[in-house]
Amino acid sequence: MLSFIAKRLLSGILLLVVVTSGTFFLAYLAVGDPTPGLLGNSATPAQQAALRTKIGYDQPLLVQFWNWFSNAATGDFGTSWRNFQPVNDQMALRVPVTLSVVVVATVLSAVIGVAVGIACGLRPGGMLDRGLKLASVVLFALPGFWVSLVLVMWFAIELRWFPAIGYVSPDQSVGGWLRSITLPSVSLALGAIVMVGEQLRNGFLQVANQDFVRTLRARGLSGRRVTMHVLRNASPAALTVLALLFVGLLGGAIVVEIVFNLPGIGSLTQSASQIGDIPVLLGLTAVTVVFVVIVNFLLDLVLGWVNPKVRER
Amino acid sequence: MTAAPFPATLAPVKRISLWRRYLRRPLGVVALGVLMVVVAAAVLAPWLSPFDPNLVDFKLTHATPGDGHPLGGDSAGRDILSRLLYGARTTLFGAVITCVAGLLLGVPAGVAAGYFGGVTDRVCSWISDALQSVPGMIVLLVVAAGTGQDFAVLMVALGIFLAPGYYRITRARALAVRREPYIDAARVAGVTNPRILRTHMLRAVYAPIVVQTALTAGIAIGMQAGLQFLGIGSASTPSWGQMMNDGFKNMLTYPLILLWPSIALGVTIAALAFIGSTLADLISVRTEQPARRARLRVRQALAGPAPAPGDLPDRVSSGTHEHQAADCALRIENLRVGYATPTGVKEVVRGVSLDAAPGEVLGIVGESGSGKTQTIFTVLDLLPSGGTAVADGIWVDGREVGRLPSAERATLLGRSIGYVPQEPMSNLDPCYTVERQLVEPLRHVHGLSKTAARARAREVLVRVGITDPDRVLASYPHQISGGMAQRVLIAGAVAGRPSLLVADEPTTALDVTVQAEVLELLRELQQEYGMALVIVTHNFGVVADICDRVVVMKDGRIVETGPVERIFRHPEDPYTAELISASLDDTEGRHELDEAWDRDPRLDADLDRSAAHVGGEDDAR
Amino acid sequence: MNAPEDTAPLLAVEDLVVDYRLHRKLRLRALKGVSITVGRGECVGLVGESGSGKSTLGKAVLGLAAVTSGRISFDGEDITHARGAARRRLANDIQVVFQDPYGSLDPTMTVGEVLAEPLLVAGTKRAQAGAVVAEMLDRVRLPTDAVHRYPSEFSGGQRQRIAIARALVRRPRLIVCDEPVSALDLTTQATILDLFIDLQRETGVAYLFVSHDLGVVRRICHRVSVMYQGEIVESGPTRTVAHEPTHPYTRRLLLAAPVADPVRQAERRATWLGLRDSA
Q1: Under CATH, domain B314-397+531-621 is a member of which superfamily?
Q2: Residue B132's pLDDT band (boundaries 50, 70, 90)?
């Protein structure tokens, strides 16, 4: 078990290194000289050259990479090329906002998705099951920001139940915080709920048709106990989907935050992308991948606990 | 020897193409129609659009629909309908680029990883996992930051992020096909790897890829709109995402501007999603349990009114009873089992009566499709989904149970009836230890305490001949051998001291030496506990070994019932005789056959038998 | 026709060792130095239980399992490590029939495509291939109009006939049969075995016949080797091995298979119990 954990951890770190380095080179390749974008078209070549020196862009690419990478390894992502604020400070303000929305959305989709999945798995072909199927078809593909636009129109503008835009920090008011992230989280979670539900339902039915379920029944076990056996066997697929969703929701959050005008990483990414502020983009990439690695690691632990065969690999 | 008459079972099967079957789904047809309209609008946009999409007319700013502008004007004074039509062009163009990129990357990698396995598989899978762990939106914005906002490059990048979807589905399919013997057969036949990949593999992955493409196109359009919404893309090229951004900014005052592109986007994505789901349904039929109405229909058909006289032999009960109902451990009277199929009710057991007394071993023997296993499942009241049983009576321990509600039937299981399945490995829950699986019923069905249940489980394991019960108790199913697993299952079946043990081909999946051990064990337990044992088998050797009486089944009916000695000595039905003689025990070996053939090839009486039997090749086991 | 024993063997396997990798470190020795020969037109049986290595030997001959050491020669030529083009040339001479009648035919191909594939990859013209396919269908007693149908339209026994026809189209000299009848009903089993015998007499093909069932092997094989845990424990003419086994494992194996006669089976069981308890 210990070597299993070590292996997973190592694989996560490797992923982090590869993705951040990959993004580094991709960004440099894609952006090219960032100074026109940062200074605007009216800047003189001398101003541009001065900025290049200031941000170290005149150094060889590999030297820049090493500088960035060695600092990033200690947790320092440098300063923004636009306002020369430390990237860490900006992210410290914004990441909690995004994370609140994404974590709440993940929890919502997990809890509701599992409940819906079990209910449908127990009565396949029933009303709820058919409803789930219809919802899964539509909501699976519809982008979160489209759903959020609809939700804003309805709940915030028509019914005025929730604030249409803005963010309230939990330090100020927990109730206000909840209200401010409810609509963004729900609009992100809707698609995720049906995906988790669908996945669990299909896994549930697949397991329910296996031989050992008949044998368990033949031993006289109650329906509830047999269901627990089926659930445990069906859970890996649903858990995997949940971990994948977390990544998808992080991406989706960027657009949803713009709709709800939340001060998360969304608007930061957007503005950094428009002017080519590479340190900010790299910092954001690194932080999100760290979260993804953590979630995948937790997933591996849970899968190992659920399925004894995984542990031995 | 002449060619045998061709079996009549080969009735021409009409193969209906996927396309034709798709057209029978109304929802799918509507979705396809909607998509066609969108495609047509995109292609014909230059001719359909009433205005230049970029023509600014200040009078038109925030205009309401009407006056030659059916959808009104946007915040810059441009005609919304024209922009919507040209936007469809952008949208579909982007979706095609994305899908092609994802397809070209994901499918070859998936096929190669699944087929070659090993390092190829590990490298490709790692890359795919890594891609899925990257927050694509951020990297896409990085790409957008520098590429001069080149739309096509951005869409290719999006395709790269969607490639893992193709990769995973292709790899899983290729992996499954790789294990099929037909790939090995092709290799042995001298087919080169590229050709195997091109023909067999591609054919196998084709259908799921079509489904995946419909879904990927939907996601791609959504993400594309998201990017455009964030301001990515050239301002002079109209796009739906851009229009939504424009509408979003004026949402409170001019909601209509947001409404039009939202509808276009939602309808297009929903159409693609419904096309994908319809195709998925056609390719892999979901394991839907038939609605209660269908079950009722089967029940009515089975119990239905008196059959026409011509049907009589198929409608009256077959088989006889040997004992009084009250003395029986098991008695079944006129059992019918049917399954709902699209063409009506398929009857797999057609009126079967049998019984077994305590201490008696009854064999139910027949070939595949004879209904023997279905009969057993009816005794357990555990028919596979879609199956319905109707009987004049089912008695267990001398008590009529056939009309009890299913919850009460279930209380017999584990107490009065024990069950030994066929495949030992697939009948243990892979997620739990052997101990947990043996102890759980003892505690929750028989009400033993935890320590008592564990002691009893250990005791039964010793009884079934396991010499190191503590190691086996702590093991997971994949850690023990097939023979051991079957002993564990037998231990589980007899742990509750049932009066009736039903065993469904309990030795078929086992090696012949293990089979002998398991039969010996079943015999000992049956005698020790005085149980009635009902054993289903296709092997007359097993019948001769363990049974007192035997029931021979064919096509859902009993052709003959009787004591074992009599059945073997004087089989009354020719089918029984044929089954007994099909076992190769006393037939000539190859040396005798060759000697006979050397004497006179034409008088090869024994071999001629085969010609007459080709029609009897109904099924594999 | 009796097995010609005077000529040089068609297939000779000498001291073959095959390892399977279970983990990165753990290896399982599936074959521990096995030697057999198959003569022209002869049927040699390999009998044993699961895990005895009998199927591995068949796979090694077909080039589907990597050989650790030892030598396989076909018609005097060393084919132990034949790969790529050399292995594909062997397709002219060595073919296979697998156990699973459902998995051994590509469900997306018509029977005609399945049967023509080995010919087309060998460069046969399409029209000529069609004629050969029709002839082989006739040989396995299936009607020629089967070429337009898909495997799913056939029963298990009929599919096995198609698989046999595919093995025959290149007119090989050796067919490796890996449990070709063990997934079939008993009555079907008997007819397919008889078909194998007929085809051997008609075409002179040799069989390496892998099976767990001594009854099947006795019916079709001239000689048999009994395998146990990766080794051959006993070899000889089938008649001798089946009636006067010398190795205790062979005796146990023979006695363990129940016969379809209650009286004789009771005697056999008593003997088996004695053998088991004394062991």
Answers
A1: P-loop containing nucleotide triphosphate hydrolases (3.40.50.300)
A2: confident
- Measured distance CA(B457)–CA(B433) in Å, rounded: 12
Predicted confidence (pLDDT) per residue in A182-223, tens digit: 888 888 888 888 888 888 888 898 898 889 999 999 999 998
Q: Of C265, C217, C264, C220, which Cα lies nearest the Cα of C241?
A: C217
What residue has token string 């899908």?
B99
User: Is the CB of residue A150 less than 8 Å away from at least one CB of chain B?
Assistant: yes
Average pLDDT (B489-496) is: 93
DSSP letters along C81-138, please?
A: T--HHHHHHHTTTEEEE-S-TTTSS-TTS-HHHHHHHHHHHTT--HHHHHHHHHHHHH
- How far off is chain B from C105, nearest CA to CA, in Å? 5
The answer to whether the beta carbons of residues B157 and B138 sit under 8 Å apart is: no
CA distance B226 to B218: 12
Vertex B454 angle, CA B453 and B457, to 5°: 85
C-alpha C122/C-alpha C113 separation (Å) is 14
pLDDT grade for B610, boundaries at 50, 70 and 90: very low
Q: How many CB pairs under 8 A join A and B?
A: 235
Of B269, B415, B493, nearest to A141 by CB-CB distance is B269
Q: Between B4, B589, B598, which is nearest C219 by CB? A: B589
Q: Which residues contact C32 (CB under 8 A, 6 or more apart)?
A: C17, C53, C229, C230, C231
Which chains touch B (3+ CB pairs under 8 A)? A, C
Q: For residue A160, what are the domain limits?
A: 96-262
> Is residue A236 domain-resident?
yes
Closest residue to C155, CB basis, from B568, B589, B619: B619
Residue A1 lies in a domain: no
| pLDDT at residue B105 tops 90 | yes
Written as six digits, the tokens of B475 are 């093991």
Both structure tokens of A244? 């994948």
Asked if pLDDT for residue A178 goes beyond 80, the answer is yes
User: Does B147 contact A153 at a Cβ distance shorter than 8 Å?
Assistant: no
B422, B590, B600, B610: best mutation site toward chain C, by most C Cβ within 10 Å? Answer: B590
Query: Does B72 or A107 have the greater pLDDT score?
Result: A107
CA C35 to chain B, closest CA, distance in angstroms equals: 22
- The predicted pLDDT at position B603 comes to 52
CATH code of the domain made up of B414-498: 3.40.50.300
Indicate the range of A275-279, A307-311, B161-165, B533-537 predicted with least confidence.
A307-311
Domain-wise residue ranges, chain B: 18-284, 314-397+531-621, 414-498
Contacts 24+ apart (CB under 8 A), A226-234: A227/A118, A227/A122, A229/B429, A229/B431, A229/B432, A230/A121, A230/A204, A231/A118, A231/A204, A232/A306, A232/B431, A232/B432, A233/A203, A233/A207, A233/B429, A233/B430, A233/B431, A234/A121, A234/A200, A234/A203, A234/A204, A234/A206, A234/A207
How many Å is the Cα radius of gyration of chain A?
23
Torsional sign, CA B278, B282, B283, B284: positive
pLDDT of res. B11: 42
> For residue C3, is pLDDT > 50?
no
Q: Rounded to an integer, what distance in angstroms lies between the CA atom of residue B331 and that of residue B353? A: 7
> Domain B18-284 in CATH: superfamily?
MetI-like (1.10.3720.10)
Contact between B393 and B400 under an 8 Å Cβ cutoff? The reply is yes
CATH number of the domain that residue A182 is part of: 1.10.3720.10
Determine, yes or no, domain membership for A39.
no
Does residue A206 sit within a domain? Answer: yes
d(CA A17, CA A32): 22
Domains held by chain A: number: 1
CB within 8 Å: C198 and B189: no
